[in-house]
Amino acid sequence: MARDLAKSTLERFRRRLDEERVRLLAVIAEIEEQQEEVRLTETSSERSPDPNTAEGGSLAFEMEKELSLARNAEDLLAQVNEALERLAAGSYGRCAECGKAIPVARLEAVPHTRLCVGCAAGRR
Ligand SMILES: [Zn+2]
Q: Is residue 62 domain-resident?
């Protein structure tokens, strides 16, 4: 079962995962900032009620949308972090389910994946 990826290949994936991690952290920070702004807006409009109450509905919708974006980003970040841990532990590139080697082409497409195509398909 031991099929070691070339050091240079592993290093390339590590760099991609690192970049993805940084990008996701920025996305999450930005969403949190926006959430904070929305909260501040809501608090101030409570103190001095705005006649345009229709705004409230779309504001809640926006917030809901942002929240699901944040959740997606956090999910992805957790997977990226796991992949980086597997890289460090030397188990990167092997399916977490069946233990088979994940084709490099799949890793290229989804560097943070922990499952081979077969196992990923079986889960859906
Ligand atoms: Zn598998």
A: yes
